[in-house]
Design a protein that fits this description.
Layout lengths: L19 H17 L3 H27 L10 H13 L2 E3 L7 E2 L2 E2 L4 H11 L5 E3 L10 H5 L6 E6 L5 H13 L4 E8 L9 H14 L4 E7 H4 L5 H4 L5 E4 L13 H18 L4 E5 L13 H14 L6 E3 L39 H5 L11
Helix pairs in contact: 2-10, 10-11
Length: 374
């Protein structure tokens, strides 16, 4: 399985290029051609080196499987059980209030009545929420979600150094202990270079001291978790929240949707070789625009249909839908690593900014009263 050498909120090379397999084959042909021009002894050295590289590649997953990082939180076992129950028998969705905007890093406050209307729209198909921050009104999400029968909320803490944000989240836990099951400390903090692995691990430990009964994690693009330096952070996590976006892989524009779903499943397998706790793919999806880049409502619906078949949920592995509502304001958000948000960032939602359902919604079965998906 091949991953792009870099991964993030932008393609690693312009879309429309060769699929990874073709590029790999082309590279092989170039190497073979160069070898023919060298002396036999040099050619043999290169062949031996290539054999070693192939052997190392084949053995790497087995080495990882021999000693995955594990964390078994005794005090958080009840919360983790409730979280994994929703993974297996319900559905999580990533949620930002439609009444809140973040422009150039500055947030507006979310309106509680608007949040309630958002959650009413989502509730027939979702009973788990993952939020991104615990400020500017988002800390009230659990108070409103519990009124509508949601089963689980994983509260996000965007700024890992913010004492106030952590206090807001902990206050929400005290008000709603039956529904808040976990905390997500930071969102792509290492990837965006807002924190190091050590700083993130320290922040997770600090949160656990205040909330030992909660399941605690952090969210990063999958390739960050695969880095050797991530081991110190993985050992602190009660469960994993990974972002796996096939649209940023070079082959996406020319591959059928089952390939994209298969990619997400295989990445999850790779992560499970490194980490033995529950894995919830926090972000994965397909935007619905711009169509010129291959993003359409039909493709979004097709992707999730394929993913439900390829990665059926259980209490060890599941995926959340990314995300609840379109957010046009994202085009005015601050750059990440010097790159402005692309036009697709406004169109990830299952619903439009006015809460109008997109075609994908009709393909997601409603949850019965027992919250067990069909």
């Amino acid at each position: 399985m091949q991953f792009s050498p870099e991964y993030g909120r932008r393609p690693t090379r312009p879309r429309g290029g060769r699929p990874a397999r073709q590029e790999h084959q082309r590279s092989n042909r170039r190497v073979t051609s160069r070898l023919r021009t060298k002396r036999p002894e040099i050619r043999m050295r290169v062949i031996r080196l290539l054999r070693l590289l192939v052997a190392a590649t084949l053995l790497a997953p087995r080495i990882a499987l021999a000693a995955p990082v594990c964390n078994f939180p005794a005090k958080a076992s009840s919360a983790l059980q409730r979280l994994t129950d929703v993974m297996a028998t319900g559905r999580f969705v990533d949620y930002d209030p439609t009444s809140s905007q973040i422009i150039n890093g500055h947030s507006s406050r979310a309106d509680e009545e608007s949040i309630l209307q958002d959650l009413k729209v989502l509730r027939p198909r979702f009973d788990g929420l993952i939020t991104y921050t615990s400020t500017n009104g988002a800390e009230r999400i659990p108070d409103l979600a519990v009124q509508l029968g949601y089963r689980a909320v994983i509260m996000g803490i965007w700024d890992i150094s913010s004492t106030k944000e952590l206090e807001n989240a902990l206050a929400a836990v005290k008000r709603n202990p039956e529904i808040v099951v976990g905390l997500s400390i930071g969102s792509e903090s290492v990837f965006s270079k807002r924190a190091s692995f050590k700083q993130l691990a320290d922040a997770v430990r600090a949160a656990r001291e205040h909330a030992p009964d909660l399941a605690i994690s952090t969210s990063e693009p999958f390739h960050i978790f695969l880095e050797p330096a991530a081991a110190q952070m993985l050992s602190e996590l009660d469960f994993m929240l990974a972002n796996v976006h096939p649209i940023y892989e070079t082959w996406f524009s020319v591959a059928p949707d089952p390939n994209a779903a298969d990619f997400v499943a295989k990445v999850t397998d790779e992560l499970a070789a490194l980490y033995c706790g529950p894995i919830l793919v926090k972000e994965t999806g397909v935007p619905t625009a711009p169509a010129g880049s291959g993003y359409t409502p039909a493709r979004q619906a097709s992707f999730y249909q394929a993913l439900r078949q390829r990665l059926p949920p259980n209490n060890r592995r599941a995926f959340a839908y990314f995300c609840a509502f379109d957010a046009p304001w994202r085009l005015k958000d601050a750059p990440v690593l010097g790159v402005r948000p692309g036009p697709q960032e406004a169109h990830w939602g299952l619903y439009g900014e006015k809460r109008q359902p997109k075609p994908v919604v009709g393909t997601i079965p409603a949850l019965p009263s027992s919250s067990k998906p069909e």
